[in-house]
Design goal:
The protein has 604 residues and is an alpha/beta fold. It is built from 21 helices and 21 strands. It folds into 4 domains: 34 residues; 249 residues, Periplasmic binding protein-like II (D-Maltodextrin-Binding Protein, domain 2, 3-Layer(aba) Sandwich), CATH 3.40.190.10; 127 residues, Periplasmic binding protein-like II (D-Maltodextrin-Binding Protein, domain 2); 113 residues, OmpA-like domain (60s Ribosomal Protein L30, Chain: A), CATH 3.30.1330. The protein is globular, with a radius of gyration of 25 Å.
Length: 604
């Protein structure tokens, strides 16, 4: 029974969601009926760190026998474990390790004594409900909850984990008491490598500033939303944090129906094909004008098969930025219940071991990729094996002379997982992702995050690598280091960053630490990028001295990033322009402050 409405039919968590919806509706009504009230101000934040190294190790291994399609009888006496996840190709490794939705004869799960069922669920809210049902049954004394409405763990985009874990933790604390139960990331088994993307008119790619005033459909707080926000902030664009309003001076993000990535694509198609619009309250400088505007959907954030749907139906649209550029941003993470996993550590570690082993087979042998495509088709009940096989590698298309990219995924072997979490090379890529997205949640406040959730669960509490480190007898290899020897020529993003220095000095002030940390986090997430860093000054003082000062300031940023572990070979150009390229008049204090800046360009 729920504790809020005293209903036999609703869980407290469901009631919490309903309550939040009612509160949101009341607040929305207040906003609508009270023009001139202040609303959320559009924000221009620092973007995510870009780390250049591609996490993609291949460990030599003998070819293993492919799993059959026959359901295993050998592990039928073992307790059933259920995991739910989106239809997402980056999960191919764990799916083929199981042989399909249920553990098959000859599969790696069978070999490692795991009786696993994989369930497709594309709605984030339903994934959460399944995990909450598991906890409810576990709390009632069931050691191995296995009803068809429950799941021990979910597989989602790792950059969506701060939102998912933090909002779920709030509900758990309210229902069961503070800190009785905890959801944690227990490992990573794959990576989006182009599959997840922002789609829009080609002009957004050549001139990112043309995105100003656009409306983009996305699942707020999810990984594709993060990709969109990253691109905006890396290019110095403001993002409107209120999905109910329209700011012509910012990029506006509209929440897709049912938090469904397919709906994101469908809403763009419907808007562009039929003229369908959404009604939004107009806002200027953080204040409602009292007017409403009807706006088309101009772009969407989605993944396969949503991207293919858009490119099949529309002309003039392309992929603007994807997880191929932000190559470390979006891992496939396994989020499970700590209090169940701890006494069942062997099962959890063997699930990870099976998935990582199967992934390494996919890296070495094409037959394993093909078998994975078959298992994915059976699990998702969607498309056909050739579709998933092709989309795993990534595909390029052309329509009316405009090229676009679809798909693109990776799976993790053991060396990849150890490297991604910094256990082999000391660079914790996922911590940078988690920290950066945590900042976005607090600053952009999607779904009233600050009011309804309150805080982000800290990284050290949300991540539990014990089960990954507990794996034994698995083939591995040393992590490879990134190669930055080739010159990068294509601009991925460019923005002006306000790094504060002492007057007439190249000494970075402490007030800039937060901005520098965000730059570092972007570098970790887009690990394949190189950098141009150019310093600028105002017109106070001697022009010649200012030229030298601007170069010293650019170098100071380089030294900071190098001390954080960014290799010197990533900096392709470090220069200064002195006072020669002001962006504002130097006749006011504000103008001078704006001209004292560092421009950072990400290249690929």
């Amino acid at each position: 029974m729920g504790k809020i409405f005293r209903s036999e039919k609703l869980t407290t968590f469901s009631e919490l969601l309903i309550s939040l919806g009612v509160i949101g509706a009341i607040l929305a009504a207040i906003y609508f009926l009270s023009p001139g009230l202040k609303t959320s101000v559009s924000k221009k934040l620092e973007g995510i760190e870009l780390n250049k190294t591609d996490v993609n190790n291949i460990t030599n291994a003998e070819k293993l026998t492919l799993p059959s399609k026959e359901i295993s009888s050998e592990i039928s006496s073992k307790p059933l474990v259920r995991i739910a996840g989106y239809a997402w190709n980056a999960q191919s490794g764990i799916i083929v390790a199981n042989g399909g939705p249920k553990t098959t004869k000859g599969s790696l799960m069978e070999k490692n004594g795991v009786n696993l069922e994989l369930i497709r669920q594309d709605w984030l809210s339903e994934l959460r409900n399944m995990q909450m049902k598991f906890i409810e049954e576990f709390d009632q004394g069931e050691k191995f909850p296995s009803s068809d409405k429950s799941a021990f763990a979910v597989m989602i985009m790792g950059d969506g984990a701060p939102f998912y874990i933090s909002s779920a933790q709030k509900a758990l604390d309210e229902k069961y008491g503070k800190d009785k139960y905890h959801l944690q990331v227990m490992g990573a088994i794959g990576m989006s490598y182009g599959e997840d993307k922002l789609i829009g008119p080609a002009s957004w790619k050549t001139d990112p500033k043309s995105m100003k005033g656009a409306v983009i459909s996305a699942v707020l707080g999810d990984g594709d939303w993060v990709t969109t926000v990253n691109y905006c902030f890396a290019n110095g664009l403001k993002v409107n944090p209120d999905p109910t309003t329209y700011d012509a001076d910012a990029v506006n993000i509209y929440p897709s129906e049912n938090d469904d990535y397919i709906k994101s694509a469908e809403e763009l198609i419907k808007s562009q094909s039929t003229g369908w619009t959404v009604s939004l309250k107009e806002v200027e400088n953080g204040k409602l004008t009292g007017k409403s505007v009807n706006r088309k959907i101009d772009g969407c954030a989605t993944w396969t098969p949503g991207d293919k749907m858009v490119f099949d139906k529309l002309s003039g649209f392309t992929d603007i930025v994807s997880t191929k550029e932000f190559n470390n941003q979006m891992p496939t993470v396994l989020i499970g219940l700590k209090e169940w996993a701890t006494p069942n550590a062997e099962i959890v570690s063997n699930i990870l071991k099976s998935a990582l082993t199967a992934s390494n087979q996919m890296k070495n042998y094409d037959e394993w990729k093909k078998r994975a495509a078959e298992a994915v088709t059976e699990t998702y009940k969607m498309e056909n094996p050739k579709y998933w096989y092709d989309m795993f590698k990534g595909q390029q298309g052309t329509k009316n002379g405009l090229s676009y990219n679809m798909g693109g995924s990776k799976v993790f072997n053991y060396a990849d997982a150890m490297q991604y979490f910094g256990l082999s090379d000391g660079v914790n890529r996922y911590k940078s992702v988690y920290s950066q997205v945590s900042g976005y949640l607090k600053e952009l406040n999607p779904f009233g995050f600050n009011e309804n959730v309150g805080k982000v669960v800290p990284y050290d509490e949300a991540i539990n690598l014990f089960f990954l480190k507990n794996i034994n007898d698995i083939e591995s290899s040393a992590a490879e280091k990134a190669d930055y020897t080739n010159e990068a020529t294509e601009v991925m993003a460019s923005a002006e960053w306000r790094i504060n220095f002492g007057s007439g000095s190249a000494q970075i002030m402490g007030t800039s630490t937060k901005e520098l940390e965000k730059i570092y986090n972007l570098l970790v997430q887009a690990e394949n990028s190189k950098l141009n860093i150019v310093g600028h000054t105002d017109n106070v003082g001697n022009p010649e001295l200012n030229l030298g000062l601007s170069k010293y300031r650019a170098q100071a940023v380089v030294e900071y990033l190098k001390n954080k572990g960014i290799p010197a070979s990533r900096f392709q150009l470090v220069d200064g322009k002195g006072q020669s390229e002001p962006i504002m008049e130097n006749n006011t204090a504000a103008g001078k402050a704006a001209n004292r800046r560092v421009v950072i360009t990400f290249l690929k």
